[in-house]
Amino acid sequence: MSKDNSNHFIKLVPVVQDYKWGKPANTSLIAKLIEDASSYEYLAELWLGAHPKAPALIANSNLNLIQFLKEHATNFMGAKICSKFKNSLPFLFKILSVNSSLSIQAHPSIELAKKLHAKDPKNYPDENHKPELAIVLSDSLELLYGFRKLEEISNFVKKIPALNFILSEKSKKDLQSREKADSEILKNLYSEIILAEETKQKKVIKLLKEQGVGDAEAGIKKWIEELVEKYPNGDRGILSFFILKYYELSKGEALFIEPAIPHAYLRGDLTECMATSDNVIRAGLTYKFCDELVLLDMLNFDNVSQILDIRKETEENFLTYETPAKEFKVSKLSKGLSKKMNFEGLELLFCLSGTTIINKEISMNKGEAYLVSDKCSNYLVEIKEGETFHVRVPV
């Protein structure tokens, strides 16, 4: 490749996913980020990466990003990244527009991912783990994340007939006495919910419809009412609202989801950055394949839900999200930024809104993305309006 910096910016075309849990196309954030949304009924996800399921396309060419990097990996990503990640792009960047709850899920460690892929490649399509960063783009994002404290769960058991019904007397006694380790009590409780037979699940729906959820918070009440209609024959995930912590995050807030932490996005717009993987271990709120025993065996039951503020403004209009991920580091660039970028390794720029100017030559508008070569140094980024996300690989 030429040493001229102008040859080190590759424009990408994202790929969209039209899953039915996405927002209707006419209201989805993704519709504003692509050229033509008229052929879609729903728009759920926008992908920018090199996952085999949906690799980004190289603009004005017949290549996708996997094919491009196969020829230019070392020159474009840099020797360190190529060596560490075997010539593969290590991150996947997404925009999600969620209208209806995603599944209760967690992601495997690398060791478990390799075992699952070898045993069941259909349901576990790769060997990688999937640590992920989520950043809220809408006014609010509703989600379940991590486990509640046992005191909270105990109060729900006393007040909600459906939850009381599905748990054994032994588990309820252990919950009250607290003589066992908290993690053991929690695993036993959640196991009885997730592994409940279909007749019990149907009974749960009946009890929830007839007797409700007592004085549970308004957000939970709303979702239970919606989900008992969506799953009239029952679903193992519905009672998870009383075991997992419910959150409503505000625009700009973020969280990092490590392997083995249960979660479910419920409604809202967000951006995600993750290791390049599509491995999901599900246990409810879905008609897709669920692997309840694997999930229960791998979950971190010592984790009491807590969302920490991981935002760090390293300089004005340059906000970085600090995570332990080795595959990516994400920053949000805002209006007024004028910065010489000098990072080692490959980078991604994605314009969420407004206009971003690169080297006073390339004008990025909303929905546009550029991959930046490792060979490119000290290039100028100016944010005239709006926001742009910057992703790099820590090296």
Structure report:
The chain has 395 residues and is of the alpha+beta class. It folds into 3 domains: 14-144 and 249-288, Sandwich (Jelly Rolls), CATH 2.60.120.10; 149-244, no CATH class; 313-392, Jelly Rolls (Sandwich), CATH 2.60.120.10. The chain has 10 helices and 24 strands. The strands form 5 sheets. The chain has an 8-stranded antiparallel beta sheet with strand order 6-1-22-19-24-17-16-15, covered by helices on one side. Strands 2, 5, 7, 9, 10, 11, 12 and 13 form an 8-stranded antiparallel beta sheet that branches. It has a 4-stranded antiparallel beta sheet with strand order 18-23-20-21, with no helix packed on it. A hairpin with a 7-residue loop joins strand 16 (318-321) and strand 17. Helix 1 (65-77) packs across helix 2 and helix 6 packs antiparallel against helix 7 (182-194).
Brief sketch in words of this structure:
With 395 residues, this protein is α+β, with helices and mostly antiparallel strands.
**CATH superfamily grouping of the largest domain:** Jelly Rolls
Number of helical runs?
10
Total number of domains: 3
Indicate the overall shape.
Answer: elongated
Q: Roughly how many Å is the radius of gyration?
A: 22 Å
Mean pLDDT: 94
The total beta strand count reads: 24
* Largest β sheet strand count, sense and barrel closure: 8 strands, antiparallel
> Can you list the strand order of the major beta sheet?
6-1-22-19-24-17-16-15
Level of helix content? Answer: 25-40%
CATH architecture of the largest domain: Sandwich
Please report the first level of CATH classification, the CATH class of the largest domain.
Answer: Mainly Beta
Poorly predicted regions are: 1-5
Distance between the termini: 22 Å
How big a fraction of the residues is strand?
25-35%
CATH topology-level name of the largest domain: Jelly Rolls
Helix/strand structural class = alpha+beta
